Amino acid sequence: MNMQTSLSQEWYKFRHQPGPLLGLLVLLGLMLIMALSAPVTQSAVVMGFGTPQWLLMIIVIIGANFFIMEDQHTTIRTLLYRHTYRWSIYLAKLLILSLYTGVLVLLSLLFTGLLKIVFAPQLSWQDGQLFSHLLVGMAGTFLVAILLLTIILWLACLFPINTVVIGLGLILVLTGQGIASLTIDANPMLTAILKWQPLNMLNLMAQLPDSSYQKDTHLSNVQLLVGAIGYSGFFLAIGYWRFKHKRV
Amino acid sequence: MLKMTNIDIWIRHRQIINAVSFDVQPGAIVGLIGPNGAGKTTIMKTILGLIPFSGAVTIDNQSVTETNHAGLKSVGALIEHPALYPFLTGYQNLALYTQDEANLQAIVTQLEMTPYINRKAKGYSLGMKQKLGIALALLNHPQLVILDEPMNGLDIDATILVRQIIQQYAQQGTAFLVASHILSELEKVVTDVIIINNGQVRLNQPIATFNQVTAQRYRLQTTDMVQTQALLTDQQIPFEQDAGYLNIAQAALYMVQTLCFNQQIQFKALIPEQVSFEQRIVQLLHEKDGDEHAN
């Protein structure tokens, strides 16, 4: 079976699950709650009403479920023997999840615009480059989400248990940036090395629209971008290596 | 069709499969028989390229390895449990892998799954799931079908139906490798028998040859049972009494015949003791185990 068949099969499974639609509704619902719970400021709009945080959590849950379901339902055997090469399965799953991430980012961008129009019509898109900062922040969120997906898929190959992978993924989302800052601050002599740790790359989505984060990350935007893309490639490679040698 | 040559499998420094070789010809229905842990499922997984091995597996002269499944294009399999997505309907589970819509419909009809094929698989009974698993294995006109315990959870009607379908596909040239603990069912359908134990092939022969087993014991009735018993006792020929018959070993048969003839005693009945397929398998496994322990 070729890549096209793998993609169409993975898409078929993905769109027939209730999780992805539910994930989208939860994301939009949480953004709405954020808009309703406090006065809408420029910063709230730039951050897409909490999009980065909610989106990453949803991606962790959907991504882990989509990958581990094959082990849970023992469909992994059929999947493996019916495909000529294992890489096509792994890549197809990652591409479908990336596409879903892209759709979530796009819809949350549109919904942010709608919420701003409804709850903060006095704010102008031009004020403090509101629109461009929002766009750049969403692009950063997308890249961080892809990095997180490669980590989740790797973890799913190591521990094919939903709760473990989702738990580890949520810990990364909730504490990753904090741990990165703490380790860098606690070891000033090692800053040159520690600033390149993968957890520090999670700051990309915050730093792109707000350069003040650079004092915490010790990396420029370009360096963070290169780091995030590089680590995505690294986790994709070690995740696939583990999947290739998976015993079923 | 399928050729396995000198397959060895080691898992965690333990040899699971030891020098296994056999062929499966087109149209053959090969029964893979053995106790739990004998290595049946491992052999099936090996054919599907799911575990690393040394030796060679070829299907239609195409090599199958753990990393190259090109030779498995026309292979269908049901290993251990039906592999189904519970959030998909039965039809959608099949549609996921089908290359021929008409073939899918034909299989659904053949397996009598039409009434529930559009229901989500999570609501299926064990038997329904099993049928769907078999349907998945039969999709896309496979040349080789591997079935591990296909009769699990099936009722009598479904068991007969599946047996008929297997025979029908085999007549059209599809080869089957079937593992089952329900030996009475297996006996009705197989053309060849492979017995495996402790990861080794103990016996591999056509069912016709396998069934040509000379009876080991005979039940005898004569015109004078009292005198016959006395003769056997005098000659120290072992026998048992069983519901009006004398039960004797096949090796003693000609001697008993001569003794009776000399005493003008006629045979009224001489019945070979039938050994069932099941008994024969058990006997063979025990014999081979005995040989192994003796060595």
Secondary structure layout:
The complex is a heterodimer of chains A (248) and B (295).
Chain A: H1 3-15, H2 18-37, H3 42-46, H4 51-72, H5 75-82, H6 86-119, H7 130-158, H8 162-186, H9 191-194, H10 204-207, H11 214-217, H12 221-244
Chain B: E1 2-11, E2 14-24, E3 29-33, H1 40-47, E4 54-59, E5 62-64, E6 75-78, H2 90-95, H3 101-110, H4 126-138, E7 144-148, H5 156-171, E8 175-179, H6 183-189, E9 192-197, E10 200-206, H7 207-211, E11 217-222, H8 225-234, E12 239-242, E13 245-249, H9 253-262, E14 267-272, H10 277-294
Parallel strand pairs in B: 3-8, 3-9, 6-7, 7-8
Antiparallel strand pairs in B: 1-2, 1-4, 4-5, 9-10, 11-13, 11-14, 12-13
Label the structural class of chain B: alpha/beta
Taking the sheet with the most strands of chain B, its summary is:
6 strands, mixed
Strand content of chain A: under 5%
Order of helices and strands of chain B: EEEHEEEHHHEHEHEEHEHEEHEH
Percent in helix of chain B:
25-40%
How far the N terminus sits from the C terminus of chain B, by CA atoms, comes to: 36 Å
**String of helices and strands of chain A:** HHHHHHHHHHHH
Rg estimate of chain A, integer Å: 19 Å
Task: Name the CATH superfamily assignment of the largest domain in chain B.
Answer: P-loop containing nucleotide triphosphate hydrolases
| pLDDT averaged over residues of chain A | 93
How would a crystallographer describe the biggest sheet of chain A? none
